[in-house]
Amino acid sequence: MKIKIRLQLSMLMFLQYFVWGTWYVTISTYLTNTLNFRPVEVGLVFGTFSIAAMISPFFVGLVADKFFASEKVLGFLHILGAILLFATTYIKSFGLFYAGLLSYTLCYVPTIAISNSLSFHQMDNPGKEFPSIRVLGTIGWIVAMNIIGLLKVEASVGQLYLGSASSLILGLYCFTLPHVPPKKETKASFREILGLDALQLLKDKPFLLMFIASILTCIPLSFYYSWTNPFLNELGMQYAANKMSLGQMSEAVFMLIMPFFFIRLGVKKMVIIGMISWILRYVLFAHGDIGPMVWMLYLGIILHGLCYDFFFVTGQIYVDTKAPSHLKSSAQGMITFATYGLGMFIGTWFSGVIVGIYTSTVAGQEVHDWTSIWYVPTVVAILVLIFFVLLFKEKRGKKRNPVPVNGG
Hints:
Elements: H1 3-21, H2 27-34, H3 39-62, H4 70-88, H5 94-121, H6 126-151, H7 158-174, H8 190-193, H9 205-235, H10 240-256, H11 258-287, H12 294-302, H13 304-322, H14 328-357, E1 359-362, E2 365-368, H15 370-391
Antiparallel strand pairs: 1-2
């Protein structure tokens, strides 16, 4: 790959995940502390991303790579997203805010898959070339979170202003990217356009079990994304967003060494390690504090590399190895539907309900029983782990270069 193209794609990944990182982790603190949304409302707002993830595979199958150049679709979606996110900064009521953020996420979420597809189009060997470029996305997320933390806008609308501005910059930048023309010149069936052909993969029992486990694991996973920042801020941790970026740092490290683990451990062992890491993280959060037990909070954050990479990225690699060449894009869309979509949608709603149950008002202030809250996803994760260990049987086939496709 030419150095110019490598730099272009690296900047694309940096900005793609910078935009996401400006609001995704900290918006629940803004909704809770500033807009005074109820926990279940916060969960529902967080679920807008999941709704978009369930819809985006169909949008990508209908539009991206078939009728318009990828870089133009990216540019249009990010610019439109910048406008919608800016408009959302003026909204204070739950109903309108929900509609505003849903409109924005419907623009943003498809760009994750399209940016990956555009990058793969420029690569001779994605298995070797993509990880070193994709890691710039994680760095972009880290930079965004640290900016949010240093500016102390975790509970402020300022995070949405930053997200809107960076989305506009990214949208304009996309029009400078290498041209990727529409690939589908012949007429495609409706089933193929919507990516429904990939459903045939569910006839394979191991693939079906991985699909189900992906949905179920995202239920406890949602607690981390939705509630860790409010949790740390309520405990009194200074610069909580900055501290949480340690998780993305560990994610970057593990992403670079993923090929080593994938070849030596295999899918099942890696997913099990990822699930155990989620269980351990929540136990640490349940008993950590900003006093003598603060190390538990830091360790729980740093475990993100194992939690995310060994579950999400391993699942994406597994899908890439199982799907035939003509179904790879559709299959990745389907696993995105299962994780970021259906699983996270159920999880964000469920986490909001649980946090609401363990929330009380003392002297006019809302107080959360965080120990009880964190034990709920712990129990769910244990049950999913048992399900996966007992039922999933890995079929060893030809070893291929693993290609992590999504991230966040």
